[in-house]
Amino acid sequence: MTSDSYKKILLLRVGILLISLTALAFAVSAGNIYAIVPTLLLSAWACYYLHAFCIKRFREIDDFFEAVKYRDFSRWYTENRGPEDMRQLHRGFNEVNRTVREMNSEKETQYLYLQKILEMVDVGIMAYNLNTGDVLWANESLRKNLDIPSVKNIRFIANRKPKLFRELLQADHSRETSVTVDVDNQKNKMLVSNAVFHVGKEAFKLLVLQNIEDTLNQNESEAWKKLLSVMTHEIMNSIAPISSLADTLKSNVQMAMEEPDQYPLEIEDLHTGIESIKKRSEGLMKFAKTYRSLNKVTSLNLSRIAVGELFRNINQLMNPSLQTKNIEVEYKVEPQDLEVHIDTYLIEQVLINLILNAVDACEGKKSPGIVISADRHLDGNTVIKVSDNGKGIPEEVIDNVFVPFFSTKKKGSGIGLSLCKQIMLLHKGRIQIRSVEGEGTVTSLIF
């Protein structure tokens, strides 16, 4: 519309109108009737010519805006007929339509991609209008998990399954929550979260639902398999030699009873055999107790204690055994009046475990050293660290040190660090290990 052609044609029509009006004015002033009539007709034609020129283009623009209003971008305007300025205007309209169609096509493609992805994921997703209840989106996984058909409004769920509606849609799950849902007379464990978002004046709720029943069952099954495997292996390792030795002793005793002269009973051998059976049995009992210790800690007896006092208790308990190993131990507390709110007995058990691990790691070192320190970080957390300059933990196994029954020691049960982690979780804290093989390990208790 701003092309030079349009400007020239518009100026020409305005010029013709001005000339005709000027001539009409002269004719009227001269009183020449023969001049007035043709100049009047010329002026009328010039006005009509200018009006028609402008109206035609305004109609084209109004027509285009009407199509935009109703989102009709399918129309194609002629570009090869008519005045040059009209062609230019039509090219602009067509370019706008083409751009919008491309944008819509890209948007549709992205929507189809998103639709396919959401249908493929094993997570139920629903979005609906909070005011009207109209469902914007609900994928197949959600319908399957809740055993509902495709719905257009959540009122359907409220009418058909009111309990499900209250527990999932009405309840607030802004924080991820585990909910037991009764679906088709089966109780399934679901992980539910929701978020509210606004588009313009409308409020929408997005519900995300994941069925974790199968995962829990699978994990439980795997855990039982590992547990039974470890227990079977350890028990068989203890029972096999006990059974074999008991059978041998029984055979010796029986032969001595039947033919005492030919097979005299060696009391010392009998004593040694019984002692071996006793030790093996004690080892089996100890192994059973380690299993029980994993489930033993379920509650805390919290009290506030100065970290310095906690360290003094640990030092009195551990110092005699550490001195015999010639290990230098240093305790550091900053600030000196630092306190923690803990179950003293359990945290002492954790520290003893970590110190014994550090002692084992320092075995064979020329100048073994252990540092037990405590300080308060800027984020307000109290951190107790047990550091050693021992052999460190290989990078390939450090991620498994908290796995029950995993141990890098030949005589380790793999229970210690698992128990430490459980105790820290009960304190709503965490335990972290940083280690460099050949340089040492730092274990942090973060409260």
TrEMBL record:
<keyword id="KW-0472">Membrane</keyword>
<keyword id="KW-0808">Transferase</keyword>
<feature type="transmembrane region" description="Helical">
    <location>
        <begin position="33"/>
        <end position="51"/>
    </location>
</feature>
<dbReference type="GO" id="GO:0000155">
    <property type="term" value="F:phosphorelay sensor kinase activity"/>
</dbReference>
<keyword id="KW-0418">Kinase</keyword>
<dbReference type="InterPro" id="IPR003594">
    <property type="entry name" value="HATPase_dom"/>
</dbReference>
<dbReference type="InterPro" id="IPR004358">
    <property type="entry name" value="Sig_transdc_His_kin-like_C"/>
</dbReference>
<protein>
    <recommendedName>
        <fullName>histidine kinase</fullName>
        <ecNumber>2.7.13.3</ecNumber>
    </recommendedName>
</protein>
<keyword id="KW-0597">Phosphoprotein</keyword>
<feature type="domain" description="Histidine kinase">
    <location>
        <begin position="230"/>
        <end position="447"/>
    </location>
</feature>
<keyword id="KW-0812">Transmembrane</keyword>
<dbReference type="Pfam" id="PF02518">
    <property type="entry name" value="HATPase_c"/>
</dbReference>
<feature type="transmembrane region" description="Helical">
    <location>
        <begin position="9"/>
        <end position="27"/>
    </location>
</feature>
<dbReference type="InterPro" id="IPR036890">
    <property type="entry name" value="HATPase_C_sf"/>
</dbReference>
<keyword id="KW-1133">Transmembrane helix</keyword>
<dbReference type="InterPro" id="IPR005467">
    <property type="entry name" value="His_kinase_dom"/>
</dbReference>
